[in-house]
Amino acid sequence: MARTSDTRTLTRKAAAQLATQGRLPHTLTVDQIYEVIRQGSRTTINDELKQWKAERAKSDALADTLPPPLADAMCSLWASAVEQAAEQFAAEREHLTAALTTVQAQVHELTLERDAQVVRSTTLDQEIASLTERLDALRQSLARIETAHAVAMAEATTLRTELEQLRHDAALERSEARASYHAALVEHDQAFRQELDQATDRLQRTEAQMLKQVDDARVAHRRTETQLTRLQEQHTTARTELAEVRQRALRDQQELTASRHALASAQERIAQLETHATERDRALVSVTAQYEAANRIIATLEATLKASGRRPRSRPQAH
Fold this sequence. Notes:
Layout: H1 2-20, H2 30-37, H3 42-65, H4 68-116, H5 121-308
Helix pairs in contact: 1-2, 1-3, 1-4, 2-3, 3-4, 4-5
């Protein structure tokens, strides 16, 4: 019996320990508990684990309906009360169970001795009666402990009722808070819609300005394209004219080269003519000198003839 009590207590402690490590209470298994405590029968572990899960489920259900601070406080109080009652009951039951086991063993031994020794039967009967009285007293003590346990369970029931009332009050407060939150939400939604309308209006004006800028940019782009086309045409014309000028310059250069050759020939011819003219001038000067000398001779002869009374002949004129 002591082993069974230890198994139940260790089962609860192991389940609480696994729950604090992040395991969900409803997912705990007998194998997981046994792996921690390493003792007791699986039937005992299963029974105590079911009871612990039921108590934990009730506690969690109550905690979900209360504000977190109040739920934590009530759950702690509930867990503490249940744990203290269970520990006290387990300790008393373990003590009485051990004593009962000892007495039962002694009764068994005495009964065997009575059967073996008829002579000592009277004494053994008295001892058995005494032990029986002790057994009855232990049973009465056990009954008192069970009564105390029932009282503790009644107090736990009262505490559960108070928790239900607190849950009801919390539900009312939550309903009022929900209504207040809804009103605030409606007011916030109206303000948000007003601000959204203003933002939409600003966005539309901005879009209109942007569209106008885009149209202006497109017009400027088309104007630029027109100017670019005109410049390209002018560039093409200029390149054509440049090619023609280059061709004319090439022809002019060719003609200039030919003119230079003709000029050189003409200059050479002029030089030859100048040489001939110089020679002719020289010859003309010589002929003129001869002509003048002849004229002087004729003048002298005419003067002589005149002096002699003869009529002079007419002189040839110089050319």
